[in-house]
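Chain X:
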Amino acid sequence: MGILDRTHWWRSVAASHEKKRGKFDRPLVLAAAVLLLLLSGISVAADTQEIPVVNAGLGPCSVDFTVEDGSHKPLYDAKINVTIRYGFLSKRRTDLEVGTNGDGKARFERLPSKVKKALEFRVRHGQLTKTISHDPADRCQASYTVALTTQ
């Protein structure tokens, strides 16, 4: 076997190896791309926070709250509470409280649709307090944005 034969043989081996390697590169790149997309989707899902929900179990209505400070930034763990009076002569009473998540959001579900007096939601964060009056007979599904500011 001469030098030219060896060079030709080596080129043919390298070419066949290149063809085989090319067959595995494409699925490997595809798998890496899919893995990257899945991991980026997981990080996006981790950024969204679950909204805290309190279920009163008294009716079909709900109220969503977004609590912000004076510069429109969400307030974490702002407390929202309400006392619901219902039943004959309003003898029954339910006290509910929920804290907001990092996006300043909270939700009350299954509130009664008929009440004698409007529901008074008290929103507080530190020394700041605000009261929101809500009548479920007027709007069963309501949403409020509350700005807590010093006056």
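Chain Y:
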Amino acid sequence: MTKPTMAHQHHHNFSSILLSLLPLMIFISLMAQASSRRLTETALPKPPVPELPKPELPKVQSLPKLENQPTGPTLPKPQLPIPLPQIPILPLPQVPQIVPQFPPLPQFPTIPEIPKVPEVPKVPEVPKVPEVPSIPVPQPTLPASATSP
């Protein structure tokens, strides 16, 4: 752990002093706000507000009342039966039958036949290698006293 330097200690002391004075500053600001509010509400008389005369508006003739006049056909009243329009039946037009004429298809090259691959002849079997007799490994034998209980 390093020892704090003199500048570090001074900074720490100064911030501690500021933090200790913070509640005092808040208290002073709240008191100043409350006293100024009280002085403005009670001590100073309010000046009278002069009444401004209302200007006289010029008289304008009223516009003629327009009635809602229909400009086109109107819908029938709901009580009356709604006449259905008569649609004349028109004959179907005679359309000539058109058969599409396509150009002949081009001759594509044909795939040649794949030649058959001859079967591979069987490889003669390799004779088995005769077994070479190995040297017998001696088995360890235990003394008779170790096997009997």
